[in-house]
Amino acid sequence: MMRYSIRVPRRGPALMATAVALATVAACSNGSPSGAPSPSSPPGGTATSAAPSSAPPSPTPTPTPTPTRTYPLSTEPRTIPAVRDHEAARGPGWKPAPTAGIVLGPNSAGLADEGKLLAGELGVPYRGAVAAGPGDVELALGGTGAAESYTLVVRDGRVRISGPDEAGVFYGTRTLKQSVKATGAMPEGTVTDAPAKPQRGLNLDIARKFFTAEWIEARLREMADLKLNQFGLHFSDDQGFRIASDTHPEIVSAQHLTKAEVRRILALAQSLHITVVPEIDSPGHLGAVLRAYPDLRLLNVQGVPRQGAIDISKPASARLVDELLREYAALFPGGWFHVGADEYQALTVRSPEASYPQLATAARQKYGPQARVQDLAEGWLNDRAAVVRDTGKVAKAWNDGFFRGGVVNADKGIEVEYWTGKEIGARPPAEYLSEGRDVVNLNDEYLYYVLGEPNEFTYPTGRRIYEQWTPLVLRGTTPVPARYDPQILGARFAVWCDLSGAQTQTQVANGIRLPLTALAQKVWDPTKPTLTWDQFRALAARVR
Q: Is this model's pTM higher than 0.90 or not?
């Protein structure tokens, strides 16, 4: 595609010299002596000889052509994540201008929020549902592409961003915003873009360390610009229960988010096409809840309670946790609820049946004479997942809550959140995948930011994620076979606050900035990036 414009050249010395030379050649071709004026000399000029009346008219000098402006082929926009496909074209591209505005295409009223946000970011007016004019950006719903996909066309001084859903069009606006921020313009041509993975995001532990609503909202805005769409909120653990409760106010920590603050966070997340996934971890990690219900603590055969573990042989334990699951499922509108299931202390000893005879008895009573404590725990997971499913949500659970070789197997509809292979009886990722399970990557080797770096954890770097990790690397540093790629739904970068005082909120925000940026690139397009790490980091400084 060619774009042309007419440019009138200025009269510089070179152009004047050319004109003089042409006049001289014309005079000589008429037979006039050198230096003599031609018959076309201006009035008042002195003629040394008169031309015969029969002489032919002198030829008209060939005019100097006005040059036609051409443009080199455009290059792809500078964005993070990089766009998946850019069809280059010749043209000036698009820049914000005083005459530009944001408009909505036909049947696209649902994009008003996206249009108003973009208008404010680019410093141009929002005009709503009117026909696009010169220099405008048009947002439009339509097409049959994949979810979250979009097409962005720059042509004739205008931009058109279209997609089959609002999320896709929104991501197109992020591409435009970043390109303008990086270079001042959006290049000519057509971007066709879509994410490689449907789940892309950040996980935050606010149970061990309280984070303010304002801090969370700032992270959501950063996530949105990186086209991340899932925010996991771990708000219950041994150290705290951090969201107000109507059904059990007695368990709530002094420092917590009110439900009004949560609804504000959820409203912002929804406007940015981010789903917030709440997590109430059980049957372990319930210490804050159990401080109000000490009779439900898990005791070993010597009568010693295990930190954070609830006694799953008691019906009251299930009633308490299910009441909380239902309360917060109603608060959070997204399609998932995380039910935990990791690190249940009853299963971290040499003989769970000998150490916890009450659990062993309950397992046999419920699942038959061959059942063990792990079966009772697996049944607990299935029962909590059923509660979540009844609220219209998909359950997620940590991989060390799924066991092999038992009487009871975890429901296939529960998404496996794979984080570690260091637990007792660790199962490699391929075992989950070969069973046909869907898996989300939270590899603790690359994606765990643990405050204070306990237990040999070190703060992950953006460079290591960018250069070494892909969604196929679920455990350690070795990828699973590529045939399992469709079952890996995506990844989240996780902040855990084991030593809560090790960093301030500001330090956490700064520390996760580049790792989260690198993750965004790798879940949008898992192929090897074209930029070096230094180039990528420099671009991140411009667009973020």
A: no
Taken in order 448, 452, 457, 458, is the CA torsion positive or negative?
A: positive
How confident is the model at residue 58, as a pLDDT?
Answer: 55
In order, the DSSP letters of 501-526 are GGS-HHHHHHHHHHHHHHHHHHHH--
Q: How many Cα atoms occupy the beta-carbon half-sphere of 420 within 13 Å?
A: 14
Structure tokens at 44: 């008042």
Residues 471-507 pLDDT 10s:
999 999 999 999 999 999 999 999 999 999 999 999 9
Question: What is the H or E stretch that residue 441 is in?
Answer: strand 439-441
- Average of per-residue pLDDT across 449-458: 96
CA distance 379 to 401: 11
pLDDT digits (tens, 9 = 90+) for 98-116: 899 999 999 999 999 999 9
Whether 418 contacts 432, CB under 8 Å:
yes
Burial class (CB in 10 A: 0-12, 13-18, 19+), 404: exposed
Per-residue HEC secondary structure of 351-384 comes to: CHHHHCHHHHHHHHHHHCCCCCHHHHHHHHHHHH
Tokens of 384: 């909590």
